[in-house]
Design brief:
Blueprint lengths: L2 H13 L15 E8 L10 E4 L4 E6 L4 E6 L4 E6 L5 E7 L4 E6 L4 E6 L5 E6 L7 E4 L4 E6 L3 E6 L4 E7 L7 E4 L4 E6 L4 E6 L4 E7 L6 E7 L4 E6 L4 E6 L5 E6 L2 E9 L4 E8 L4 E9 L5 E10 L6 E3 L4 E6 L8 E7 L2
Antiparallel strand pairs: 1-28, 2-3, 3-4, 4-5, 6-7, 7-8, 8-9, 10-11, 11-12, 12-13, 14-15, 15-16, 16-17, 18-19, 19-20, 20-21, 22-23, 23-24, 24-25, 26-27, 27-28
Length: 339
């Protein structure tokens, strides 16, 4: 029996005799595991992911191994590893140029790679701690959070920095509202959510929250003008009005979340959380209801510290990398989203 199976046996047994508030297992019918892809040799922390939708190629920042893993979803295999990186964190695929953009947290350097040959094409030097990445495909602009407080704006065609917005603390998860030309940024060290004008390149306001537990992941419903914020310790999902900052609802969340997604078609929120109960992580799924309030509909166990993920609504997939442990090598678990 695998190590994870023993963990599940223990948690089910323990929960039978205790309340286990927020940690009971339910809603497994919302996600069906359809494929598990081995990530041989990958050790330590795994950070963010992105996907080449046309070819179904996934890119995983293997921070602990200083590598970027390239996985073919069709074959279910790792087809390449870009090694020699320095704590890769953010990654984005640029479809127009067929390039991969990788942000290194250790050096602050950001690299462009040819997605076919994996040859390094260009380097962007940021001061330090290049972290999360967002790509605006319409404007061909890459946004990178970095350093003690900044968002760098990079032209994907010219491989050059074309703008910079200063922040009062290091940025974590952030989202672009392309219709309003706004950027919403989590600043957990300052206990703030900053709102940036990406045309004027300036911070226009801060939203202060009462929770001091680490606001790391974020999702945005731009049509509904709603922000979804994940707090780590203790875990909370906060739903707020993006314009006013008014808190609409608060839900319990498993600890140590690092990626959070809103699926506009189903009005569901998917959160990957690494620090759960009985040495497990959990995928928390919520349903957004009328009045912009949420109810939790699933709490699905994963391997401990599996806190990063990727929602691929085009294929109804949810991708979750699970780090290696004493008994298991690292894996990418591919889930099919069920109605």
């Amino acid at each position: 029996m695998k190590y994870i199976s023993l963990q599940l046996f223990l948690i089910i047994g323990i929960c039978s005799f205790s309340s286990c508030k927020g940690q009971s297992l339910f809603g497994k019918n919302y996600l069906q595991s359809i494929k598990t892809i081995s990530l041989p040799g990958i050790k330590g922390r795994i950070d963010h992911l992105d996907i080449n939708l046309k070819d179904k190629i996934v890119y995983i920042s293997a921070l602990g191994s200083n590598a970027l893993e390239v996985i073919d979803l069709n074959s279910g295999k790792v087809i390449h590893s870009i090694t020699g990186l320095d704590e890769p964190q953010g990654v984005s695929y640029i479809p127009q140029t067929r390039e991969i953009f990788v942000a290194n947290g250790g050096s602050g350097d950001c690299y462009f790679y040819n997605a076919t040959t994996f040859e390094k094409i260009a380097t962007i030097h940021l001061k330090s701690d290049a972290d999360d990445v967002r790509y605006d495909s319409a404007d061909k602009k890459i946004y990178v959070g970095y350093g003690r407080g900044g968002i760098a704006i990079i032209d994907a065609d010219t491989h050059s920095v074309i703008g910079n917005i200063k922040l009062p603390a290091h940025p974590e998860g952030f989202q672009i509202d392309t219709k309003k030309n706004l950027l919403y940024v989590n600043l957990p060290e300052a206990n703030l959510i900053s709102v940036l004008d990406i045309q004027k390149l300036k911070l226009i306001r801060n939203i202060s929250e009462n929770y001091r537990s680490g606001n790391f992941p974020m999702a945005l419903d731009s049509s509904g003008n709603i922000l979804f914020i994940g707090y780590r310790h203790p875990g909370k999902l906060v739903v707020m009005n993006a314009h006013s900052g008014h808190r609409i609802s608060t839900n319990e969340l498993t600890n140590d979340s690092d990626d959070l997604f809103y699926d506009e078609a189903s009005h569901r929120i998917f959160v990957s959380c690494g620090g759960g109960y009985a040495n497990l992580g959990f995928i928390n799924i919520f349903q957004l209801q009328s009045g912009s309030r949420c109810i939790q509909i699933a709490n699905i166990p994963t391997r401990s510290s599996a806190r990063t993920s990727l929602l691929v609504p085009q294929f109804h997939l949810f991708l979750l990398p699970e780090p290696s442990d004493r008994a298991n090598e690292a894996e990418l678990v591919v889930y099919q989203i069920q109605k």
